[in-house]
């Protein structure tokens, strides 16, 4: 198979459950090129792109705390939750060299590697021609999370003029969730995020009616000013004090999509983290639904949901932005940056061209 240079990203140290992850927790190291002959059903892959996801933070702890993903082992190759690669050699009749593939689940942060053909799927030609990274954003887990979260837990009704609020609204999931909420019929759309540039993107390009910069504005006061009628649907990506402020403004019989709680990912807390007693009381008194949403529980709906996402994307109703870091050696840096809001839209690492 030749003997090109190979590299991988290794977990060197753990940040500790209650600390921010650091670039130095990762190291970029040389690794042997996979030179063994491929066994039947194997594919040799050249890595093209990595998906970076906040859920990876729990894998940096000794115990991930969740059932569906394992903790990373110290000294071993880090693996993420998605990516794109090119088949270099194939020992499976369904795949040819040059095919562009994406994993069903895990994807190593490694330049060249061997996988079983049944753990990846070929990207449709139409998608690779537009952009193969669409499978990491709108036409992948992120888009599915936004779409199915809104559909399953949002209770959006056309012509009901509902007010929807989204936190981490300029991130990958949040930006899509807000646009989907609008496309599915909500009346007013408010995004909360961490910079003026992000706020401007939401209101000028994505159709958000209002954006709040939680780092420079008082979320509670601004919500009061822009949503005097109260909040009907809240797509919650962050938890913590931002969510407490939103929940205090929610209406009777309103709905929370409990998607993520990134404000607490660097804290030694169970998931979902506990909420203050007054917020608990508000949820009860106002009959606000707040059920945990996990996209992996809706796999039977992925196919029709991807069809609808494609339709909305082609109609120009879903705009997608990516923040691309170049080079596998910068994957750790990009992950640390994303966890602090360095990204707009989907954070991706381009490994090779
Ligand atoms: P994003 O693209 O949204 O990136 C994370 C963003 O979180 C950052 O850009 C940052 O934006 C924001 N953020 C970071 N720290 C804080 C904080 N302390 N308070 C408020 N905002 C913060 O990532 P994803 O779209 O991939 O994920 C968004 C959420 O969705 C996460 O909570 C993730 O765990 C969850 N998720 C859940 C899934 C499910 O099945 N339930 C599946 C996939 C994702 P800013 O500049 O605005 O602070």
Automatic annotation (TrEMBL):
It comes from Aplysia californica (California sea hare). Pfam families: ADH_N_2, ADH_zinc_N. Keywords: Oxidoreductase. InterPro entries: ADH-like_C, ADH_N_2, ER, GroES-like_sf, MDR_fam, NAD(P)-bd_dom_sf. Belongs to the NADP-dependent oxidoreductase L4BD family. Residues 23-349 form the Enoyl reductase (ER) domain. It is an enzyme of class 1 (oxidoreductase). Its EC number is 1.3.1.48. SMART domains: PKS_ER. The keyword Magnesium does not apply. It comes from the Eukaryota. This is 15-oxoprostaglandin 13-reductase. It catalyses: 13,14-dihydro-15-oxo-prostaglandin E1 + NADP(+) = 15-oxoprostaglandin E1 + NADPH + H(+); 13,14-dihydro-15-oxo-prostaglandin F1alpha + NADP(+) = 15-oxoprostaglandin F1alpha + NADPH + H(+); 13,14-dihydro-15-oxo-PGF2alpha + NADP(+) = 15-oxoprostaglandin F2alpha + NADPH + H(+).
């Amino acid at each position: 198979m030749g003997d090109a240079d190979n590299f991988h990203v290794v977990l060197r140290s753990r940040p500790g459950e209650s600390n921010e992850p650091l670039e130095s927790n990762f190291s970029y190291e040389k690794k042997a090129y996979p030179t063994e002959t491929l066994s039947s059903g194997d594919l040799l892959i050249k890595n093209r792109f990595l998906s970076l996801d906040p859920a990876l933070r729990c894998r940096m702890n000794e115990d991930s705390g969740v059932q569906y993903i394992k903790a990373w082992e110290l000294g071993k190759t880090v693996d993420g939750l998605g990516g794109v690669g090119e088949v270099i050699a194939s020992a499976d009749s369904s795949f040819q060299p040059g095919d562009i593939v994406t994993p069903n689940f895990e994807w190593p942060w490694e330049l060249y590697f061997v996988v079983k053909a049944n753990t990846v799927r070929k990207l449709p030609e139409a998608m690779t021609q537009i952009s193969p990274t669409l499978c990491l954003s709108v036409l992948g887990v992120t888009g599915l999370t936004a779409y199915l979260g809104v559909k399953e837990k949002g209770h959006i009704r056309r012509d009901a003029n509902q007010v929807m609020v989204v936190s981490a609204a300029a991130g990958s999931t949040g930006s899509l969730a807000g646009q989907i909420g609008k496309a599915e019929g909500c009346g007013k759309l408010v995004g909360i995020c961490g910079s003026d540039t992000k706020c401007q993107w939401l209101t000028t390009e994505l159709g958000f009616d209002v954006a709040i910069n939680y780092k420079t504005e008082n979320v509670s006061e601004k919500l009061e000013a822009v949503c005097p009628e109260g909040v009907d649907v809240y797509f919650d990506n962050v938890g913590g004090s931002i969510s407490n402020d939103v929940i205090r403004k929610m209406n009777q019989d309103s709905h929370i999509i409990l998607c993520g709680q990134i404000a607490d990912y660097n804290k030694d807390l169970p998931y979902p983290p506990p909420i203050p007693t007054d917020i608990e009381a508000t949820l009860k008194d106002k009959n606000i639904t707040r059920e945990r949403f996990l996209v992996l529980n809706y796999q039977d709906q992925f196919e029709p949901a991807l069809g609808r996402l494609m339709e909305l994307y082609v109609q120009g109703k879903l705009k997608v932005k990516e923040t691309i870091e170049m080079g596998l050696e910068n994957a750790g840096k990009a992950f640390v940056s994303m966890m602090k809001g360095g990204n707009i839209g989907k954070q991706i690492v381009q490994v090779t061209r």
